[in-house]
Amino acid sequence: xxxxxxxxxxxHQYFEKGTANENHALKGIDLTLDxxxxxxxxxxxxxxxxxxxxxxAGSLPVDYGQIKIDGHDVxxxxxxxRAKLISRVFQDPKQGTATLLTVEENLSLxxxxxxxxxxxxxxxxxxxxxxxxxxxxxxxxxxEGRLSAEIGLLSGGQRQAVTLLMAxxxxxxxxxxxxxxxxxxxxxxxxxxxxxxxxxxxQNLTTLMITHNMADALKYGNRLIMLDHGQIAVDIKGDQKKxxxxxxxxxxxKQQSGAALTDDAILLS
Length: 269
What we know:
Blueprint: E1 6-15, E2 23-33, E3 38-43, H1 49-57, E4 64-69, E5 72-73, H2 79-82, E6 86-89, H3 103-111, H4 126-137, H5 156-168, E7 174-178, H6 186-203, E8 207-210, H7 214-219, E9 223-228, E10 231-237, H8 238-242, H9 246-257, H10 264-267
Parallel strand pairs: 3-8, 3-9, 6-7, 7-8
Antiparallel strand pairs: 1-2, 1-4, 4-5, 9-10
Helix pairs in contact: 3-5, 5-6
């Protein structure tokens, strides 16, 4: 049996610990992702979604517990150290790219991630340009003809699609999607989700996706987790997830957590 890509054991996270405002944000989370799993994580505001993702990414120090990626204990490793194993796409399309560089220059930087930099070798090589053109053509957004355009001139959706390519051009052990369509309009969000699904399946990427959109959480991925007050309330996969409706999910959440979901951001998504 293959080794898990991600193992989270007994993860506790606190904010303002020891004060009157103490918030026990994660309460002993145990989570394992097998190779190729595409997991959507959903939950109301304050459920612990972002805290979990930031803990896995390394941008939030762990209070208690252990995190392993590909069998390596990364619990106390920095974001930079984990960068060889993790790629992350943020909510804001601007966060994953360098605004004043061209599309091909951004992709070239992503291709060199984790490699020793040679400062005497500048520019984009011809074989790299051919690779970038092919990757961009696969998005079906017409970007293969805009390699030399400054990436800051692209629309939010186009830029987020390029960010997805940058995050996966060197296949990561774990792909983290941090509400990566939340800043886009509904039509563009749907396009980016379709591109996401295509890339994840073509590369068989192990993926953890945080979302507020219940329909997306049901439609995409082979596993769905709902968090509630720092704990896993629902964890379903395979055929059980495939046949679930929004009403079914809300009822399941109520049964497991003991209360109805009341977060408007999720209910109206």
